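Reply to dn_fold:

You asked what the input looked like. This is it:
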Amino acid sequence: MQYFTYTDIIRIKKTTTTIHLYTQLNMKIAIAQLYTENFDDWANIPIENKQEYCNIHAYDLVTKRGTYNTKFEKRHPSWHSIPLILEILETTNVDWVFWSDIDALVMDYTIKLESFIKPEFDMVIPNQGQGEYCRTKTKNCLCCGHYFIKNTDWAKSLLKALWEWPKDEYHTYRHDSYWEQCGMNSLWKSNALNFDEHVYIELYNRKFNSFYYSDSNHKPVQFCEWGESWFRTDGKRHELKGSAYNDGDFIIHFAGKHCSPYRKELMEEYKGKVKWN
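and this is what came back:
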């Protein structure tokens, strides 16, 4: 499948001075992220944040600005995580790619990515419990904001199948608010490519994908226990299975329209709260 012209990749290589042997698993890991020009005002914050984290643990960081040139002009930029990950898997010797949405910060530099990986699987992806937002209509919605994918033939086949899903352009490119995530959930629900045998579903989204939420006064909402729910500023109740960021979590994810007006300000604030040691 060659729909892509690989351009505008910014590779930030791991340092050679950091003492690190990818722990006992001896893995080569890359973090990947993508953004478009409308995020230029604040994209440097997560880029620098993840670079610092990668320097500590000798990971690669791959950042792409802009989308791929494809014949599918109507795809939302979120879809373009797929060709970026595919390029990394097909052209480098990394063992795993950790996809990280650009609107997220690593908050605890002491936590290693290896601690989340399940070597016997080809993918590790969290369950965010937002089923009503996905076309799968299941309460066990998989989240594509952050996930791990292994450099295997099966993983590449999954990404290619995801890129092809579905054939109905009306649903794929304009009217699914979760874009490629809806495709991932559809493949999971249908057990495409024996999905269940190859994918480990992390039941607690907060392990590596905690969301920032705020009350009506724009003050952060936190929960101490996984499994709780909260009320968003729009007054609607959402069961998030403990997705709200708590101090000490690995990642804070400033996703959603409720963060958009304040995203730069929030990132500036939280980058100063990172745990270094």
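The chain has seven helices and twelve strands.
Hope that clears it up.
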